[in-house]
Amino acid sequence: MSSARPPNQLQVVTLDAPPPEDRFVLVVPGQQAPLYSFDLPNGVTGPARVRIATQQLADRIGSGPDAIDLVPFGRDELWTRAIVFDGASRGEWAAQAAARSGRCRAILPDYLALPAADGHVSLRRSGDAVLARIGLLDGFSAPVALAAPLLDRALRTAQANTVSLDGDLPTDVAAVVARAGLVTGPAPDAAFSNGEVSSDLRQGGGSTEGARTTLKLWLIGVALALLSFGLWAGSVAIETGVIRADTAALRDETTRILRGGLVPAGPILDIRQQVTRALEDAGAAGAEPRPTTPMALLSDATVALFGKAITVETVAFSAEDGLNIRIVASSFAEIDALVAEMRESGLGATAQNLRALDSGGVTARIDVASSQGEQP
């Protein structure tokens, strides 16, 4: 950073960057470590509160508590928000050369590197993502296609009146800012000035390396994505038709699917991020047809699902049937509109097994396939 940096302000270092001479914070992709709200009892603090929240999250994504981690966010001992992430990622982040430096104050998701203040919204374009910090206790990192609806939802409950903009923000994000009546103003003086470093992700450790397989990485990536985008229902089941009883066969099958087109070479580390980047590269090249991997289809389907009063109940994938998403909506018309939107975006989507629910609303299975070929 330049010499104009205020004294004692922490530098920001990204993954794979060498550690600087001054104190710094290592930031990781925020889409892999979203903020999540919990309903926790009063009177329970410390490790017991963390255990309750971890079990609550594990129950919601069906992963088991050994596969996820969380770190409380905020200084209040009765915290209700935490940063959640695939537990094994903590070890990978902590193994970075920068993270091992004595000058590293914390590992944090990238959106917490934005300056924050009560009543203020900080927005930044960062490559193919938009980072947002809303007040002192909220924030997110989202793909450009999802940033506007996610920001719109956050601003509905936020007590915000000013905004600072950094970078070339998408027009739909700018429209959300204008509709919320936010007044453009200067950014708060410095990042990390509100106790963010106390939420150092290195504090995690509930998961074990042995809990992680390529399958679990995919499943937890899906779960965190849907949690982050507010689409996750209670007791959601994730199923996949490529599962085999033998762990080695499962790993080989999952890797084969990815190697078949989306990640043809190099290490498979962050599937969701690699899928998104590969899809964007392919779209920019305008050359090859989109692959039909689970994450590719789910990424596109999530864009259509987001911002609607629709609950996702199950997500299933098989090589034969593609991606199947069981949803609950308020009406059949809402399901028809969702299918139409998916088709307009280039997905082959059909609604199956539609029926009314005794408790109200309707349910359906949305079958999602690649845009290759004619729509049924």
Describe this structure in words.
With 376 residues, the protein is an alpha/beta fold. 31% of the residues lie in helices and 26% in strands. The protein is built from 9 helices and 16 strands. The chain has helices at residues 46-61, 87-94, 144-157, 171-179, 214-228, 247-259, 271-285, 294-305, 332-344, and strands at 11-14, 24-28, 35-37, 68-73, 81-86, 104-109, 120-126, 129-134, 138-143, 162-166, 183-184, 232-240, 311-318, 322-329, 348-356, 362-369. The strands form 4 sheets. It has a 5-stranded mixed sheet with strand order 9-8-7-10-11, covered by helices on one side. Helix 3 (144-157) runs parallel beside helix 4. The longest helix has 16 residues, at 46-61. The radius of gyration is 21 Å and the shape is globular. The chain starts with 10 loop residues before the first strand and ends in a 7-residue tail after the last strand. The model is unreliable at 207-219, 231-254, 268-273, 286-291 and 372-376 (pLDDT under 50).
The rough form would be described as globular
- Percent of residues in beta strands: 25-35%
Number of helices: 9
Helix fraction, binned, reads: 25-40%
Largest β sheet strand count, sense and barrel closure? 5 strands, mixed
- Round the Cα radius of gyration to an integer and report it: 21 Å
The H-and-E topology, N to C, reads as: EEEHEEHEEEEHEHEHEHHHEEHEE
Distance between the termini: 55 Å
**Class from helix and strand fractions:** alpha/beta
How many runs of DSSP E, i.e. beta strands?
16
Q: Strands of the biggest beta sheet: in what spatial order?
A: 9-8-7-10-11
Task: Write down the overall mean pLDDT.
Answer: 75
Unreliable residue stretches: 207-219, 231-254, 268-273, 286-291, 372-376
